[in-house]
Amino acid sequence: DTGVSQNPRHKITKRGQNVTFRCDPISEHNRLYWYRQTLGQGPEFLTYFQNEAQLEKSRLLSDRFSAERPKGSFSTLEIQRTEQGDSAMYLCASSLDDPAEAFFGQGTRLTVV
Amino acid sequence: GDSVTQMEGPVTLSEEAFLTINCTYTATGYPSLFWYVQYPGEGLQLLLKATKADDKGSNKGFEATYRKETTSFHLEKGSVQVSDSAVYFCALSAYSSASKIIFGSGTRLSIRP
To answer: Does residue A2 or residue A78 have the better pLDDT?
Structure first.
């Protein structure tokens, strides 16, 4: 296992388009997290899955955002009707029981033009 | 709400210099405290942690002590190396939600040979 994998690494999209990102966690990890990081800031929590159940969502996650983890393995994060303010690095992480021991992927950088 | 404030960067030091990166926090209850590091081109990774007052976390020559009386968790290293150049994030595990990590804005550290 090579760690947490995120695809694509970079995405440029026009405002109003939908985008979907994929995260493949470390295989034995039951917890999966999505964070968003804007330039010059630390990561901000978006949502968390335990196996296939989405157990917590930040108020940062507007109705245009949806995340799934259908079989408790990989996860997808979809943003509908993208806005320029959605431009950020989207980070995925996975862990066993302790979120502080999470392994982070290298992120997907989204640019909305 | 819970938050982390850390020293703004960038910080530039010569090799073998002493490093301090200040971090203070605001939290209800008794959070766990962490330092994460992001090396160029790599994902975020946990550097060290402390889970209760007066605990000292240490790793790779870095240390930080959980000071409840000053709500601080300053990162220190006695002699930095060029390979320590990275972005460092102070963080806490929120009492209100054990599933997420709250990050500071990060401090970029550059070490001159």
So the answer is: A78
